[in-house]
Amino acid sequence: EVQLVESGGGLIQPGGSLRLSCAASGFSLSSHWMHWVRQVPGKGLMWVSRISQDGSTTTYADSVKGRFTISRDNVKNTVSLLMNSLRVEDTAFYYCVREVAANWFDPWGQGTLVSVSS
Amino acid sequence: DIQMTQSPSSLSASVGDTVKITCRASQTVSNYLNWYQQKAGKAPKVLISVGSTLQSGVPSRFSGSGSGTDFTLTISGVQPEDSATYYCQQSLNIPRTFGQGTVVEV
User: Fold this and answer.
1) pLDDT tens readout for residues A28-47
2) Of A109, A115, B35, B70, which residue is 20 to 30 A from A15 by alpha carbon distance?
3) Which of A111, A64, A62 is closest to A86 using CA atoms?
4) Chain B interface, mutation test: which of A4, A48, A105, most B Cβ atoms within 10 Å?
């Protein structure tokens, strides 16, 4: 079964750092671009970041550029998102997603909640 | 960035109705348009990719159409289990962008 499982979310103060992890199973991670998408509770979906199959290319949404870093370990089958200088507005569920055929996202992980609050 | 606009924002339907959700892109996305369903408390799930390709396991009452800037998700004979929020997403450009969502209550 193709599966993505996120971990690492929690409550953090503004200005703090958090590292999210995504464990992939059931497919060859090295064959896919991987992304992070976030969702403020009760709101819509916002793309955050992506990383190429070999990790050589990364892209970020303007709102997180310079603060977030995406990485991957194709041997350990994991994708990570290091989030620094966290802001209240970063509070959201963070989903790890696999890109298929340079197009759609499937599957999505179950999401991990990041709450930034003092 | 390509802006995606869905309408309506919400709708209420009776079992067996045909429901149509539209998605408009601020510039052409060719057929790089996907539809996702998100049920309460769950992660989104892809329903339709590349404008009109039904994903494996998705009931045939779901269909997608359109190209360029205007797209439609149709649910023919809506069922209670179709109550969810539906999102369109363009996959032509980075950043990948989503519509604001359409809440469907059956």
Assistant:
1) 999 999 999 999 999 999 99
2) A109
3) A64
4) A105
